[in-house]
Amino acid sequence: MSAWPRSQELFRRAQRVTPGGVNSPARAFGAVGGHPLFIARGEGPFLYDVDGHRYLDYVLSWGPMILGHAHPEVLEAIREAASRGTSYGAPTEAEITLAELIIEAFPSIEKVRLVNSGTEATLSALRLARGYTGRDKIVKFAGNYHGHVDSLLVAAGSSAATLGVPTSPGVTAGTAQDTIVLPYNDTAAVEEVFRTQGEEIAAVIVEPIAGNMGCVPGSAEFLRTLREKTREYGALLIFDEVMTGFRVAYGGAQELLGIRPDLTTLGKIIGGGLPVGAYGGPAAIMDHILPVGKVFQAGTLSGNPLATAAGITTLRILRETNPYPQLAARTQQLAEGLLQAAASACVPCQVAFVPGMLTIFFSERPVTDWETAAACDTKRFAQFFWRMMERGIYLPCSQYEAMFLSVLHSEELIEQTIAAARLALAGL
Length: 428
Ligand code: KE4
Prior knowledge:
It is a single chain. With 428 residues, the chain is α/β, with parallel strands linked by helices. It is 39% helix and 15% strand. Helix 2 runs antiparallel to helix 11 (305-321) and helix 7 (187-197) packs parallel to helix 8. Bound molecules: ligand KE4. Ligand KE4 binds at residues 24, 26, 62, 117-119, 122, 145-147, 158-159, 207, 211-212, 240, 242-243, 267, 277, 401.
């Protein structure tokens, strides 16, 4: 008898009308077995499923809910905006305010264009880089995921990797031929590709701190080389900070790393749980976008009043409360506790973490790229996943995803998580 009869029933119904019963494969539980849990509501750091169970949420909508679910001020901002209508297809002051908050947080950004998802942000940034440089080739890294952009669905991470289609059918050879895929953190490979093809490269797009093969930080040497080689050969460096923007620091990974990319893509947190993406950079590059320049990009609901209200409120709270030192401390507390629990259970694990993001890898060796991530014991991960779920801890349903903390993941809740992990890892 399933502990989740209502979810089971809803999943059967969902599968009749939507491929796999989900609107994103990341939610499919494909790598852990069983069926997805259907959620009734979220509140603070908790999710409540349709069968009445409560979970401490380490997915947080895959990153956006850094303030926790149903934050009263965010909800009030959405309600107030909605009372004046939901979309006008015309400019509003809120779009300026959200852009100003992003520009203030990211010194590398002078102008920003709001879109509706991280995918739209990365596909737009790529088109801009190609239009600006007049070149075709793009460099990306195995295990990095930048949304479902044709030219980037080559050796992609996240649910593409989880479900075994890192290179998707439907991406034409013509598209893929302009995408060069290198190993992440492989400085020599970067130097070689620029030595041989540098003049043809429009841009390098990278997750400066990868979250889509699990949490794998880029090494200082790797990222510095990307910055140097792109500058030397006139290619643009795109930091995909859809996940890390306003998460690892208010100014994202580039604030932590002290590296200024040419373009930055954002999403998730800047929408406060509503659909928002953004791409930005120096005016000299961004002004190549129509209607100032000739590179086309458009969107019916880009910068819509509800999403900008939620995003503005979220960013203002983050700016005013500066929760990042606390997030860093809580993430470290969890990392240390998980490592100790794994050692006590004699389960070989690695734990990688940065403020607000963490992954426990079931691996004998450190995970530094897709090759080492793919070698993890995903069966053990699946067992751990369900043992934690049964103890009320909701983890991302893949070894190739990161756990996220909210500002409401308290010391006490972290201790409860560690205690659950001790039991879940025992005898694994
Ligand atoms: P969206 O189109 O899903 O808003 O953003 C795509 C994207 C771009 N860049 C990075 C670094 C990302 O992490 C993402 C999306 N992240 C995944 C989770 N790893 C979203 C979850 C999902 O696909 O359902």
